[in-house]
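Appendix B, Record 12. Input sequence as logged:
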Amino acid sequence: MSLAAPLTRTTSQTLKGYVALTKPRIIELLLVTTLPTMVVADRGIPGLALIVWTLVGGTLAAGGANALNMVIDRDIDSIMERTKNRPLVTGVMSPMAAAIFALGLELASFVILATLVNFLSAWLAMAATAFYVVVYTIWLKRRSKQNIVIGGAAGAVPVLIGWSAVTNSLSWTPVLLFAVIFIWTPPHFWALAVRYRDDYQAANVPMMPVVVSLRRTTLEMLVYTVVLWVLTMWIGPVAHLGWIYALAATILGGLFTFYALRLYRHALADTADVAEAMRLFHFSITYLTALFVFMAVDVLVRHH
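Logged structural output:
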């Protein structure tokens, strides 16, 4: 009995470690954008099997990419307070084991998407992984203050996968949806980077709040949110969405801009604090989730 308990704990910790490698919270957000995109593409609810295999394939691809990111970034993860408990820092598994696990997820993702969805979706998923790992993690993250701006493109690919899963093609609508997430990413992530500015500085990672003033950072965040607001309004006519989406996009865009403006005004007065930045960060997640949910609701209400 005394030997079994430690064994169980070790096994449990290892399993939790492998799950943590995939960054489940990030994957949740990716899935929240993928499924509504499929509904918009189908003008209704796609077949259950297609939904399941698209989400499973997308989850595996994103999980593998996140795990490879942790393998590459394990040195700076050990420095930063926010990431010091990640499994490769605490030694739950070896970097080689994590890399093999990640590549196994990528292989499984490609096989599932290619055989049960379509080849376009499978290749888009692999392209997103390659971009996230090579362009963002290896090339840009430690070299450029525009790291998350350019690297954020990888997180926008799931909408392309969702659309292509249904139509086996791409069009202007998924391109605009891609642009929405691409433009949403900087204000979302920079808000978090304001909170962990000291962490990134200690790790020598040139996130925007580290290398420029808080005033400049919050101004850019505000500009991105205004552009995002305009872009979301453009999607309505292009994607043939109605008043439900238009109302939601108007209100949500207004609120996002309000939070960004408030943070910027605090920065101008040199009174900005991390609590204000985190309010914007948390709302940005609510914003993206609600925006895509209302896209799906608009389609389902008006076409059924």
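Residues 1-8 have pLDDT under 50 and may be disordered.
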